[in-house]
Fold this protein.
Amino acid sequence: MGRITLNKLSARRVQALTEPGRHSDGGGLYLVVDESGAKRWVVFYRFGGKRREMGLGSLLSVPLARARECAAEIREKVAEGLDPIAERRATVPVPTKLTTFGEVADTFMADRAGLWRNDKHKRQWRQTLEVQAASLWVMPVAAVDTKAVLAVLRPIWFTKGETAMRLRGRIERVLDAARAIGLRSGDNPAEWRGHIEAVLPRPKKLARGHHAALPYADLPGFMVDLRQRPAAMARALELLILTAARSGEVRGMTWGEIDFADAVWTVPVDRMKAKRVHRVPLCPRAIEILASRRLAYSEPGDLVFPTGKDTVHSDMAFTALLKRMERDEITTHGFRSTFRDWAADETSHPREVIEAALAHLVGDDTERAYRRGDALQKRRALMADWAAFALSAQPPSSAAGSPPLHPPDSERSNEDG
């Protein structure tokens, strides 16, 4: 057996590492840097012919020296024929008092604090479990049954289908955790397959989402009205529609993300929901909008659509614009649904290309691993067809051709509405 190389990392290196992935210290000990930037320790070892992974905790609570001590202890146990994971599970204390669902949920969320994609994701978990599952929060976790779960889900199941399904999944995971530490036994009353699905409709039968969308037949007329408005946020909304982008992606757009020569907008990983870089083909009108706003002194990090204080607009800027257009029955995010419906109903573009234009992940991990391209040229053809449709209605001849470079100060201070 070869000699084990230990202590590859230094304390300074551990603090400086930011690249997501596993970084070896030797002897099976790894520092894992998550996409969120959180750092945690894991030890890999083989037992019974199988590779096992044992977590040691976050870097905040377990410094490098202690992680090495723990890894050494694990190697010693394995050498003695003991399984450290099995030993840990056998020593988990089972509380004698009645533990509530809320107490288990609190522990579950605290243990995963460093794994959430961002603070918003963390807040969503707590909000759904504390507020929408309030009746479960105070119940003994062992007493949560199907009736209690359905009482939480039914009030929102038919009106907020996506939220209800997420809530169900989160309840299921908390109850699974309770069973793992001996606080519950038997089947999980929140499990979908073979249980809740027998009582409530399948997700595909629910109303899609909760973002009110404009019917695509009405889009060309809407665009005529939008293009007659000189405000910067009107141009931002027009660009959002032509690119089928999310609100935050457009509001946070910087000049360094735009390649005018190749007509491509590259959205960085930290601003993408799927946490992967997304290239967006830009149609001629999109390039025209961007060119009209570019100033001679624009820096790569400058926002394309800043507020009067050079900060990112809140999503309410789009909401206010739609309200002034007397179209507050629709939502900004709903334009992605408008695009999706049009592409599916009116074109022969492949579903995979349409989903890629929306920056949706298609297929399982294996399929995505073999399909590394992003179908940019196919998406460029799709988005050209979309722009042709969206701009197919002719504006009045008196309408201005291109928006002004500088929106009036009064508009900038009013969120460019």
In short: The first helix runs from residue 11 to 16. Confidence is low (pLDDT under 50) at residues 205-210, 363-372, 398-417. The radius of gyration is 26 Å.
